[in-house]
Structures are given as C-alpha cells and as structure tokens.
Design a protein that fits this description.
- This protein is of the alpha/beta class.
- It contains twelve helices and nine strands.
- The strands form two sheets. It has a seven-stranded mixed β-sheet, with helices on both faces. A two-stranded antiparallel ribbon has the order 1-8.
- The chain is elongated and about 65 Å long.
- The N and C termini lie far apart (66 Å).
- Bound molecules: S-adenosylmethionine (SAM).
Length: 284
Amino acid sequence: MSLKQKVRDFVCHTGRYPNKRLGQNFLIDANILPKIVSEADIEPVDLVIEIGAGLGFLTSEIVKRANKTVTIEIDSFLCETLRQQFSDIPDFTLVEDDVLQLNLSRFFLGYDRKNVKIIGNLPYYASTPIVWKLLKYNQHINCCFLMFQTEVARRIVASPGSKDYGALSIGIDYYAKAEVVLHLSPNQFYPVPKVSSSLVKLTLRPQPKVLVKDEVLFFQLVRSAFQFRRKMLRNAIENGCINLDMEQMNRVFTILKIDSNRRGETLYISEFAEIANTFTATTG
Ligand code: SAM
C-alpha cells in the first residue's frame, strides 16, 4: 500500500484528519525516506533523535539503521498509533511532548557528542524556534537534518550581499555550518502543502564561529542591522532595538575602518563580531 493510501486509511479508520495547526504534512514518497536517513550516515553507536514522528514513516526508516532512537511527538492521538507500531523495537523511546517545552539534556547522557544526530521533518509553524533550541545544545549534538520551507532554507544558507541574507543566516552560522542537501516538491507530502521544502544539514560547531565578548550586544546589533535592511548601518543601529551611544559607535567604525554607510546585509559575521567586541572594549 502506498504511503498516501496509508494516510487516507488512517483518516478513514479513525476519523482524524491531519492537523494543519500542528503542521501535519506527512512525507509520502517512499523513495525519499531512505535518502534522508542515509544523509545522516548513522553508525551503530549513534543516538538519533527524531522531532515530529507523525505516522512514523520516517521513523520506520530511522529504526532500520539506528540502535537507539528517541522520537518526540506532540499529538497524543498519533502517539497511540506510534506506540503500537514500534512496541517491538528495542531501544526505541517515544516521548509524547512539545519539543519546545522539553529539556533535551537527559537524552544525551552517556553519548559522545559526535554520535548524537537529530532528524526531523519539522512542522513549519515552529521550525525556527525548534532550530534555535537545538543550536543551544551545540555541546551535545553533532549534526541535524531538518526539513524547512525552501524559502527558509535559502535564508539559512545565504551569504552576505544576497537578498536572502539576514539575521537568521548569521544566527545559524554562529552555531553551525549549514548546507542544503535535498530539495522536495509539495507532491512528496500529504496533505500537499502550498510550498516546496528543502532538507538542511546543520553541522554544529562546538564553539561559535566568531569569538564574541557580549553575545546579547552582538545579536542586538545583527537584529538592528536587518530590521531596517534598506538603511545604512549607522542609521539602522541608531534606530534599532538597542539604545547605544552613537558617538562611541562612530568611533568604533573609524577604528575598524568599516564604512558606516554600508548596509547591514553586506557585513560578514566576523565584522559584526568586531563591531560588538570593539564597542564593548572601548566602553568597558
Ligand atoms: N515525520 C513525519 C513525516 O515525515 O511524515 C511527520 C512530519 S509532520 C511535517 C510534523 C510532525 O511534528 C507532526 O506529526 C506534528 O504533530 C509534530 N509536531 C508539531 N509540533 C510539534 C511540537 N511542538 N513538538 C513535537 N512534535 C510536534
């Protein structure tokens, strides 16, 4: 039976339609499931954590390769089905919870960082908060394979100067190396979403890409620069989300020889770090 038919059967037998609010667009292309999992290059010693198990289509593929799988699903009705489906699998843990509320630390106990991998066909409504949460576990997670709307994936991997480059690109780059590894069309999901999707591999950095003395200031500068994309850097910072001494900031631009007429979208992450660090050093 095709996976699409399986979803339809599930609806027929249970009267439960995929929940739009929970982003339930299931992967129904049986050929793409092993491709996603093989990207993760799972070794017997690995711990794989899946986010959003749905009807277990991707989960079935993960448990073929992983000796230890933890899967997190918020929908208690789907969890009932998943429990029955995977009851025979050793070292399989189903966690019925909201991943955004969950402390993930306990799952990593006893695992070497290099053996911890995350896979998720994420619900699009929460993909950005979920990825931010995962990045904060950079001391415990090696890599993540996450499905995003293609438009979000483009912003994640964008380089300075491109129209997609923004606070998300810099925030991700700070914690991880990002690359798009697969593109999927809407027809590979059911119900069919309105947008295309892309699988992004995030290789988490044990240490952030740039050394930043004051992370709060660094991220505030980045947010301000992109909040007013069309403004020159100096004006964007002045009108941004922080109240800074602009005379001091102008001195920082002079010290660093950074042209404050540039737009934020042309700045590299290292330049934002230099601005934040020099500002901290000269005001401290
Ligand atoms: N992995 C399945 C697949 O590929 O067919 C389902 C993917 S579906 C796009 C996203 C899944 O995440 C849904 O099953 C949904 O119920 C679940 N989900 C949504 N919000 C969640 C949250 N906050 N925490 C955990 N799971 C969530």
